[in-house]
Amino acid sequence: MVYHICDGQALVQSVDFFTPVVDDPYQFGCISAANSLSDIYAMGAKPIFALNIIGFPSKTLPLSVMQEILKGGSDKAKEAGISILGGHSIDDPEPKYGLIVNGLVDKNKVLTNAGAKPGDVLILTKPLGIGIITTGIKGECVSEKTIEKVVRAMSTLNKSASEVMVEVGANACTDITGFGLLGHLLEMVSASHASAKISFTKTPFFEEAFKLAGDGVIPGGTKKNLEFVKDKIAWKNGFSEEEKLLLADAQTSGGLLISTPKDKADEMLKKLSEKEGVLTASLIGEISNEEKKKITVVR
Question: What's domain 121-298's architecture?
Fold first, then answer.
């Protein structure tokens, strides 16, 4: 939501929450808070405060678990430079947690997913494969090293990437979450009346996701994502079903997908790669004029 207020500023507001993707309650709180803040960063805005939303099974889990979830959210909010000013809780058979986040942005500089222009390049700031790996975590077939790596990625704020994006300049942005890269990119090009071409080999992935996908460890949401976009995608050079699913993988607290003018690409990539808190700065494709197939995937 974007609401124009005074002095050339706009209030932006977003809400997001979900069930645990990891066993550790503190890590779950951190991840969910980072995910909730991401929509604000994707709009080029600065968060100013947040409210908790939590569902908790108080009859089956100790309150210390809820305390750890809330502590994770609070610590991540502090990292973002904001306070959590209250919130609401309900008794729920399954834990759920997230934030309502409020932010401010210049009303003439609000970024949406609808401003991508032909000639823009596409830059991604976190690797893909999170959904596949978190499914592997639930199935207890992922190493502790991989768990640590993916938890760190999901807990990383998109704050630094957003700051660089605003400084250098972008035409459009979206964060990559439940619809996967292909789903969110499809939303972007559809809203922008354009098309896109992306390179599979230039797209960053968590290496462990390849083996898991080959072993059939695929979340249901990822399969639904691919089914939803399949008629809008042109696959060049032959792709396996696992490779297609990797591009459609449903992410939790994924990175930003930034559409920026080509003449700003080098500066954007340089500053992103130098900025602490940005996991990757990968040029994965470009925006083109509108075509029947909205997205073309090449090697």
Answer: Alpha-Beta Complex (3.90)
